[in-house]
């Protein structure tokens, strides 16, 4: 099986999609967001597709698209949809490009319920993916970052390291030091997230 890289975050809105675009561009990988919640502002898949320069990468359709901007299990409950994890895994197998990595973006953080029985972290385990954790600097972020790191460590999931999105801050050294996971990269704040920015950031990531 080709490599699967799961992009998680210390929470929602921390820059997972922008980071996923940079990682996808850097590896000329394919991109997949299995479960999208919240559709009014467009989907993460559309955003990533619009940010890639290389011609190889394919952005695959979601397994589930749910209207409500909420945790997948709640959005599914509201729309009377059953998220079938087995189907998600079968789809991952079907779309995985031969010889190329698949970058997979979660919804929210790792302890977000995906179904009434399973969390996002359970999907990471089932997918046998390696994880990149996206962190952002805000008051309370050290706690969110280290909780994420601890749950990954306790689950024995392989972690490639941290990508910090937004302005640099001394919290980064704390998060790296306490977690023991390395720095994969920094994606600085920009007034305009566009293809040129993503390409430039992709070249700076330490992914190998
Ligand atoms: N480096 C950056 N510079 C400027 N804006 C950014 C940067 N990174 C992310 N953003 C913006 O911040 C917002 C949240 O980022 P993003 O959509 O990547 O978060 P997310 O973690 O993927 O959220 P979700 O949990 O909804 O998937 C977006 O409007 C995005 O364009
Ligand atoms: C709608 C949002 N942008 C994300 N797609 C889903 C975030 C779920 C977060 C749930 C939670 O941690 O409370
Ligand atoms: Mg996103």
From TrEMBL:
Pathway: Cofactor biosynthesis; biotin biosynthesis; biotin from 7,8-diaminononanoate: step 1/2. GO terms for molecular function: ATP binding; dethiobiotin synthase activity; magnesium ion binding. It catalyses: (7R,8S)-8-amino-7-(carboxyamino)nonanoate + ATP = (4R,5S)-dethiobiotin + ADP + phosphate + H(+); (7R,8S)-7,8-diammoniononanoate + CO2 + ATP = (4R,5S)-dethiobiotin + ADP + phosphate + 3 H(+). Its EC number is 6.3.3.3. GO terms for cellular component: cytosol. The active site is at residue 33. Its cofactor is Mg(2+). GO terms for biological process: biotin biosynthetic process. ATP binds at residues 13-18, 44, 105-108, 188-190. Keywords: ATP-binding, Biotin biosynthesis, Cytoplasm, Ligase, Magnesium, Metal-binding, Nucleotide-binding. Transmembrane segments: none annotated. Mg(2+) binds at residues 17, 44, 105. It comes from the Bacteria. Substrate binds at residue 37. The keyword Metal-binding applies. It is found in: Cytoplasm. Its main location: cytoplasm. SUPFAM superfamilies: P-loop containing nucleoside triphosphate hydrolases (SSF52540). Pfam families: AAA_26. Belongs to the dethiobiotin synthetase family. HAMAP family: BioD. Catalyzes a mechanistically unusual reaction, the ATP-dependent insertion of CO2 between the N7 and N8 nitrogen atoms of 7,8-diaminopelargonic acid (DAPA, also called 7,8-diammoniononanoate) to form a ureido ring. Homodimer. This is ATP-dependent dethiobiotin synthetase BioD. It comes from Chitinophaga tropicalis. The lineage of its organism: Bacteria, Pseudomonadati, Bacteroidota, Chitinophagia, Chitinophagales.
């Amino acid at each position: 099986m080709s490599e699967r890289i799961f992009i998680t975050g210390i929470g929602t809105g921390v820059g997972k999609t922008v980071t996923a675009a940079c990682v996808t561009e850097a590896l000329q990988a394919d991109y997949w967001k299995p479960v999208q919640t919240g559709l009014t502002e467009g989907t993460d898949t559309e955003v990533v597709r619009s940010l890639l320069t290389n011609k190889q990468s394919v952005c695959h359709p979601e397994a589930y698209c749910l209207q409500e901007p909420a945790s997948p299990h709640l959005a599914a409950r509201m729309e009377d949809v059953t998220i079938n994890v087995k189907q998600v895994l079968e789809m991952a197998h079907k779309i995985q490009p031969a010889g190329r990595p698949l970058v997979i973006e979660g919804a929210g953080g790792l302890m977000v319920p995906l179904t009434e029985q399973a969390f996002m972290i359970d999907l990471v385990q089932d997918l046998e993916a390696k994880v990149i954790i996206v962190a952002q600097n805000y008051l309370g972020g050290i706690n969110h970052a280290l909780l994420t790191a601890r749950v990954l460590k306790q689950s024995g999931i392989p972690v490639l390291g941290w990508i910090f999105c937004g302005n640099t801050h001394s919290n980064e050294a704390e998060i790296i030091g306490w977690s023991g996971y390395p720095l994969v990269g920094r994606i600085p704040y920009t007034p305009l997230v566009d293809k040129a920015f993503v390409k430039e950031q992709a070249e700076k990531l330490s992914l190998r």
